[in-house]
Amino acid sequence: MSAPLVTKPAPDSARYEELKEEAERWRKDLSSKYAKARTNEEKDRVIAETRSFLETLLPEMMLCWLGTPWDFNGTSEVPGEGKIACGYFVSTVLRDAGFKLDRYKLARQPSQNIIRTFLPADAMTLRVGVSYDTFAGELAMVEPGVRIIGLDSHVAFLVTRPDGFRFIHSSGSAPWCVVDEDREAAEVLRRSNYRVHGLLTGDRTVLLRWLRAEKIAVKESSTASS
């Protein structure tokens, strides 16, 4: 008896383009609302709306890439066309969501530098030599949102929710493509001894930079590849 066929999800470049346009429309609208806000309370409401929007937008953009093949040197900009490395997956989604950054420079940085490009050091959580069950249990108690996570030799998105987390990344392990994995399926996350993450959508400065379309300077490392 032959083995059952495994169907990979199909990348959705058309929806991705729609989301890029939607991101810019929302950014301009929310930026205008923030500029017109007269009290701290009004500004806080716009920031909360911005966070809510990005926490919906970013995962949907990530999922448009599902099934796109991985390659160590992959630099695709379009879901389903060519191949994409883990760092380029992260940097491309962030750029296309409206963050003004150099995706090439960001993608070539060590994962900790990628996180530090957006967040201060004290907003990062570093866990080394911690069992996977312990780490996953800790994630069950963290604030919901969209995170960037760095591993031994990998970078990915981590979407934390009250009902569990999603590990979304361009995987250099089977099935060697962009995947969306839960706690049980996230073998790359399980095997890593080094895990560092930060809550991208929980940082007010990050949200303001997105609202204002401010250029984000990449934290570079002398050890980054050329």
Please tell me about this protein's structure.
The chain is an alpha+beta fold and 226 residues long. The protein has one domain (13-212): endopeptidase fold (from Nostoc punctiforme) (Alpha-Beta Complex). The chain has 8 helices and 6 strands; from the N terminus they run H-H-H-H-H-E-H-E-E-E-E-H-E-H. The chain has a 6-stranded antiparallel sheet. Strand 3 and strand 4 (164-170) form a beta hairpin. Helix 1 runs antiparallel to helix 2 (40-63). The chain is globular. The model is unreliable at 1-6 (pLDDT under 50). It comes from Luteolibacter flavescens. This is DUF1460 domain-containing protein.
Layout of helices and strands, plus pairs?
Blueprint (H helix, E strand, L loop, with lengths): L12 H24 L3 H24 L22 H11 L6 H5 L3 H6 L7 E5 L3 H8 L5 E7 L2 E8 L2 E7 L7 E4 L5 H5 L2 E6 L4 H9 L14
Antiparallel strand pairs: 1-6, 2-3, 2-6, 3-4, 4-5
CATH topology: endopeptidase fold (from Nostoc punctiforme)
Low-confidence segments:
1-6
Distance between the termini: 49 Å
* Proportion in β-strands: 15-25%
